[in-house]
Amino acid sequence: MIVPPGSHTPFIGKPQTPDQWLMYLHGKLPGPAHPSRIYSSYYEGHQQKLAFSQMRYKLAFASVFEQWRDNFCGMIVDATNERLNVDSFRVPGEDGTDKDARVFWQRSSMDAYSNAVHLEALIQGRAYVVVWADREGEPTITPVSAERMAVSYKAGSLSELEAAARFEIDAWGRQQITLWTEDYVYEVAYGTTEWDKGTTQPNPFKRVPVVPFENRSRLLGDPFSDLANVIPIQDAINKITMDALTASEMAAFPQRYVTGLEIVEDAQGKPVEPFNVGLDKILQAEDPSAAFGSFAAADLKNYVVLVDMLVQHLCSVSRVPSHYFLVNSGNTPSGEAIISAEAGLVAKVRERMLHFGEAWERVIRLCFAVKNDKRASAFEMETRWRDPEYRTEAQHIDALLKLKQLNVPEEVLWAEAGFTAAQIDSFREMRKDDAKAAAEIQKLMPQPTPQANPAIKPPQGNSGNANRKIHEVKN
């Protein structure tokens, strides 16, 4: 049973009308206490809880450490996202990169916004992309946060959507709602609070033009954030570090004591401090029984060892190599050591490329559907990603030269070298221009004079036959 905002008309069963679909999908949006909101807070570093061992320390030091941050969550997500870069799209049978797909991509500024889609999916577990036609009839790609959109899958399907709704709020607090189904598009204008006061139009695509980007998808269960298993360890690191900071304030300095000294009190009966301790001060007492001493300072290395252990756990859980956390106390690791340490991270990124790449292919097919292009059914389309592995330039080029000896096409080697699809297209044109220029220069050069080949002998004379004929005539 779902009760829409501002109404008391519940319904039971599958939604049938547009306002019922909006009620149902609005209930799927994450609320203020939803885990996705918590993940966003941890990524941005606003999660600091000031977890002190005892309440008295929190009362004493909360104002001192309120701006303190030691957050690894942002770095863990960025380590994956910085390697997720879409290069181009290719349709088998086409000549190289699909240029129309690149136009769709560039027209919607997806070089920048695709990174934001990946980032939201890694943090919150979901992100969405809407494909629609602008006033000129050209396809537009619009990223949408999971906090503003909800979808419903068809029963038994992992990819086909039955409905999707977007809930947007402008700068004046007015809400605008769009509902997509396979049959119609339902819109509630800005400022309209009654969801049954919207307008309905036929859906020209006959499909829901929304593509979900789901992180770590499973057959059963919802996709989840890369921070789901990281946050408990991050909280433990914050707790131990806060204990270390408190100890540095309370017990890291050696405390002095004196025995056998008479305690002097003021008029109110409070003890008077007998000494003004300083670097240039000498402590002395006339009483021969007085004795001075000091307590040992607290050793903060124990906290460092514990934090290092928790950071190692973060490395294992997140599959981010330890040199990202700067825990290597020895020499800087070599290039081969770094490549070996990043094998887990690269494998993690390639797994994300598999699922995100499929989603981007669906987006491009929707763009072709807007243009009524047959490539809207090009299910063999491929998403090309830039190489997620970081290598030294010398090693990389040397490996490509060895591939060239195996007769690998040059355009494949260009792509493996890290050149973008646009650069490779320009290389093709440059090679054509170079060939034309070489042909023109060849025409201007002096042409070689044909010479007889000394290996070919001139035909021999037939003098013997001629003499024989003359002799026969005389006889």
How are the secondary structure elements laid out?
Layout: H1 18-26, H2 35-44, H3 55-61, H4 73-81, E1 86-90, H5 99-107, H6 110-124, E2 126-133, E3 139-145, E4 149-153, E5 161-169, E6 175-181, E7 184-188, E8 199-202, E9 210-214, H7 231-250, E10 256-259, E11 291-294, H8 301-318, H9 335-341, H10 343-370, E12 382-385, H11 393-404, H12 410-416, H13 421-444, H14 463-474
Antiparallel strand pairs: 1-12, 2-3, 2-9, 4-5, 5-6, 6-7, 7-8, 10-11
Helix pairs in contact: 7-8
- Briefly note the structural class of the backbone: alpha+beta
Spans of at least 5 consecutive residues with low confidence? none
Order of strands in the sheet with most strands: 4-5-6-7-8
The ordered H/E elements are HHHHEHHEEEEEEEEHEEHHHEHHHH
Radius of gyration: 38 Å
Largest sheet: 5 strands, antiparallel
Query: What sort of overall outline do the alpha carbons produce when their principal axes are compared?
Result: flat
Give the integer mean of the pLDDT values.
Answer: 82
Helical segment count: 14
